[in-house]
Specification:
This protein is an alpha+beta fold and 319 residues long. It is 56% helix and 6% strand. A hairpin with a 2-residue loop joins strand 4 and strand 5. Helix 7 crosses helix 8. The relative contact order is 0.07.
Length: 319
């Protein structure tokens, strides 16, 4: 009976302690989301995360030991109260011991205080590390990478522009890796381009500000697209050009890569068979046939009629 009572008291104490810790740490979800988003970009956070996991395991072991000690103390206190008040029967009839409601929740220990400070410090360290990371780029690189990380996806171009690979914390465009340095130079597959606001608008934004874009920016962007195949289906060099109903495609990309028609006949070694009309009678018969067809409503013989008339006129058969 005492063993069962002890177990119930331990459960009640754990439940109260859990609620207390949850109330005390109301920012856990927000900090966890921030860590999850910044983790792929800030390598220094990996060490912090590992240390946090180890500390959590130690805290769990300490909490189990602390709970057992508190439960034993509580059992002793309940026994003394029962001996004085004779309340044993009422306690046994209740599913949850009445004394469990009177358990005093211990105040935050020094370890808990340091743990709270550590968690807040960890989130602050993450923000500070991200700022340090962004400050390693030039002014334009920092501005547009900040947009890539924090702006809504609807404003950014992840198809014809830059996207971040969360698995290796690198940036890509098409099938190539793209890098930015502290002087806003853009590096793609061994090629280097001097960055301007217009070029960064083309690389990052879904609806770039065309007032900032120059012809030089368009030429650089076209070269980057050709290198990375970002404008091709599946980012494959032999793929077809990817079409889109977006403003950026219609106003810029489509004009950089106009469709190529097949209006010209292919060059072959086949000899052309020319038909010469040498007999005037045949020309006249042909002319009469064409005129009759034209009167019947077929208007596709005008050029041939004019040609036959010209030949007959040169041969002095008509004036």
């Amino acid at each position: 009976m005492e063993k069962k009572l002890k177990e119930e008291i331990v459960k009640a104490a754990d439940s109260i302690r859990s609620k207390y810790r949850k109330l005390k740490r109301g920012l856990i979800e927000e900090e966890s989301a921030a860590k999850k988003r910044f983790e792929p970009l800030v390598k220094p956070l990996e060490a912090i995360i590992d240390l946090t996991k180890e500390k959590d395991e130690i805290d769990e072991e300490e909490e189990v030991e602390e709970g057992e000690v508190q439960a034993e103390n509580e059992v002793r206190r309940i026994k003394k109260e029962k001996a004085k008040s004779g309340a044993r029967k009422s306690i046994l009839k209740s599913k949850t011991p009445a004394s469990a409601h009177n358990i005093e929740v211990p105040g935050p220990s020094r370890e808990d205080v340091f743990e709270d400070v550590g968690e807040k410090s960890s989130a602050k360290d993450a923000r500070d590390a991200l700022e340090v990371y962004l400050n390693t780029f030039g002014p334009l690189g920092e501005e547009y990478l900040r947009k890539l990380l924090f702006w809504p996806r609807s404003k950014l171009d992840h198809t014809f522009g830059v996207r971040v690979d969360v698995n290796n914390s690198k940036y890509h465009i098409g099938n190539k890796e793209i890098e930015f340095d502290e002087e806003d130079w853009v590096h793609v597959d061994g090629e280097t381009y001097h960055g301007s606001r217009g070029l960064f608008e083309l690389l990052f934004m879904r609806n770039p500000d065309e007032n900032e874009i120059t012809n030089s920016d368009k030429r650089k962007y076209k070269q980057i697209l050709e290198i990375s195949s970002a404008h091709k289906q599946g980012f494959h060099p032999e793929g077809r050009i990817r079409s889109s109903a977006g403003v950026k495609y219609l106003n810029i990309i489509q004009k950089l890569f106009p469709p190529v028609g097949r209006g010209l006949l292919p060059v072959t070694d086949n000899k052309i068979d020319y038909v010469h009309w040498d007999d005037p009678n045949e020309l006249v018969d042909r002319l009469a046939l064409l005129i009759a067809s034209e009167k019947a409503g077929n208007g596709g013989h005008i050029a041939e009629i004019a040609s036959i008339e010209e030949e007959l006129r040169e041969a002095n058969f008509i004036k």
